[in-house]
Amino acid sequence: MGIEELCSPGYPPWRYLCRRRSNVYLESLCEVVSARRAELAAIAATPFRKSVEAERVLLGAMQELGFWHSVTNRKYGPLFARGLNFEVDFYHPDFQVAVEVEKGEVSNIWKNICKFVESPVITHGVILVPVVRQGQTTSSEFYQNTLRRLGAIEKVFSPLDSVVIIGY
User: Fold this and answer.
1) What string of DSSP letters covers 64-129?
2) Which domain holds residue 119?
């Protein structure tokens, strides 16, 4: 099954960038995003808003699914090697799913990928990005741009069972 076949037909758009095993939370994560579509779209459409605002919109529903918020080594020791000062926005310890919420900085997406592959207890990485990112003077198709930038680097994802990009 090719990557093109492993994507959504509607809202929210999503696509696996790699998949050896399916992420058991993908459908639930999409439902969480879909139920908060208007709030998330308002954040994405407003310049100078931060990804932490989108995290807050998702927080209650993510906790209901069993995800922890703002997880570091101090909260869950095995997450990263000693001395690494990383944090993931949401983490589910039972299913080893990490979720990062971004507002539109490409450099942060690369950092998220590094965190996913560096952790010995993350097997599924999920990155939530705006479908359209509104800057101060321009807008961009951020979800599609993210897929283009990350679509040909499957070797980087080799330690993981899956990586999914979900648009909001």
Assistant:
1) HTT-EEEE-TTTSGGGS-TT----EEEEETTTTEEEEE-SS-HHHHHHHHHHHHH-TT--EEEEEE
2) 11-153+155-159
Cα gap 158→113, rounded to integer Å: 11
Q: Does residue 166 lie within any of the structural domains?
A: no
Output the CA–CA distances (angstroms, integers) from residue 121 to 47, 55, 91, 102, 116, in the order listed. 35, 22, 10, 21, 9
Nearest to 54 by CA among 99, 5, 14: 99
| Within-domain flag for 143 | yes
Q: Judge whether 57 and 36 are in contact, CB under 8 Å.
A: yes
pTM to 2 decimals?
A: 0.91
Q: Using an 8 Å Cβ cutoff, are 74 and 46 in contact?
A: no
- CATH code of the domain in which 81 resides: 3.40.91.20
**Counting every residue, how long is the chain?**
168
Q: Mean pLDDT, the chain, as a whole number?
A: 90
Owner of token pair 């997450």: 79
CA separation for the pair 59, 62 (Å, rounded): 5
Of 19, 61, 54, the residue nearest 165 (C-alpha):
19
Predicted confidence (pLDDT) per residue in 20-44, tens digit: 999 999 999 999 999 999 999 999 9
Q: Give the number of domains in the chain.
A: 1
For residue 76, is it within any domain?
A: yes
